[in-house]
Write a structure and sequence with these properties.
Radius of gyration: 18 Å
Structural class: alpha/beta
Number of strands: 7
Largest sheet: 7 strands, parallel
CATH topology: Rossmann fold
CATH architecture: 3-Layer(aba) Sandwich
Helix content: 40-55%
Strand content: 5-15%
Length: 264
Amino acid sequence: MSRVVVITGGSSGIGAALARRLSREGDAVVLAARRGAELARVAALCGQRALPVLTDVTVRTQVERLRDAALGKFGAVDVWVNNAGRGISKPVLALTDDDLDAMVAVNVKSALYGMQAIVPHFLERGRGHLVNVSSFLGRVPFVTFRSAYNAAKAALNALTANLRVDLGSSHPGIHVSLVMPGVVSTDFAKNALGAGTPSLLPPGTRAQTAEEVADCIASLLAHPVAEVYTNPAQQALVQAYYEDVAAFEARAALPPGPPPGRTN
């Protein structure tokens, strides 16, 4: 059955890959981003049932306008994916007020605006699926130079869980899901504030492609669950962290080197 899916951060990376994937399945996609030319290119690849909407998701009225554009074009929204985000490459002690404000605006407030814009529509219909794209770094302090980004994603995780509990008993037709990728092969690191710090891979994991993450989200839409780590190895790392925080953080503080048992 064809759905109407709104995707923020739809001009590149995970958002663009998800839009292409869902459009191939027959879904209508409404794509939001600030970069008009890139947004138009992705929409063109997605076919006639793609609607690009130039949007700054850090501005509440523009997110509401995005919702209205989707409803005006298609009459209803089945899925809303809060995917827009931005990183930072600064440790905690180097952060400025502006750094923290920027991370909260693009990673937390933008998603909150999306939730508050679309969930009343879902409530009226009695169904819908809200997906917030976070990061497993919101659970584990592995890449500490992402600091404020990690903190913002932790806040997004909490907002998502609280909304899910609020709606869970009274509105079983509305799903609220959290998606937690790890390192993904996109321009995310290049576009981070204070860029220049290389991305680090946790032991036993690899960088995923945007298409792999899109496949995971597509599967989630078909079979809703509360949370999903796009790379299965990440869930084991999170479990290890909470089982013994002190031991995990002691290992994380060591300088990077080859995994045990390897010498090259």
